[in-house]
Amino acid sequence: MNLLNDGETSTKDEVKPGRSDKRTSKKGMSWPNSVMVAVDQLGNAIAGGNPDATVSARVGYFSVHARKPYVWYWKVLEKIIDYAFQPVDGPNHCFDSYRADEDELFQQGSDFFRAILGLIVIVFCVPTAVLLRLAVLVYPKWHFSNRRKDGLSTSIPE
User: Fold this and answer.
1) Which of 22, 56, 103, 153 is most deeply packed, by most CB within 10 A?
2) Which residues face 37 on adjacent strands?
3) DSSP 113-142
4) Is 76 strand, coil or helix?
């Protein structure tokens, strides 16, 4: 029994999670990517940021738009995050994340929340840097340069 609105019935054309919709040519995120983005957004919300934006996008935004005396803080976080994700996303992870979420509201947060954000970045990016470097040794197709050759990455360096 199908309980869709107004007596609609289910069709074979329904798009399953992670599959592309041929009518709109959009592809949903895979389950692991969806979970990682959700955890990232949770970390951003815990650190006083917009719960719909990721930590990387927030850092990317403020590394470009922050004013003194906080410019150095955002630039350091950007370097840490970019280094961690460089094997799979290339050198500009934070800036690319910001560009992908330009329509989001980015909140700097108070000194307390910026300190929490710094801790979150350090605690998660140090092991991530090690794991991603090991992962691209085991799965070379995951390296950003190989994915771009195969057309699997939409990130374009500027």
Assistant:
1) 56
2) none
3) HHHHHHHHHHHHHHHHHHHHHHHHHH-GGG
4) helix
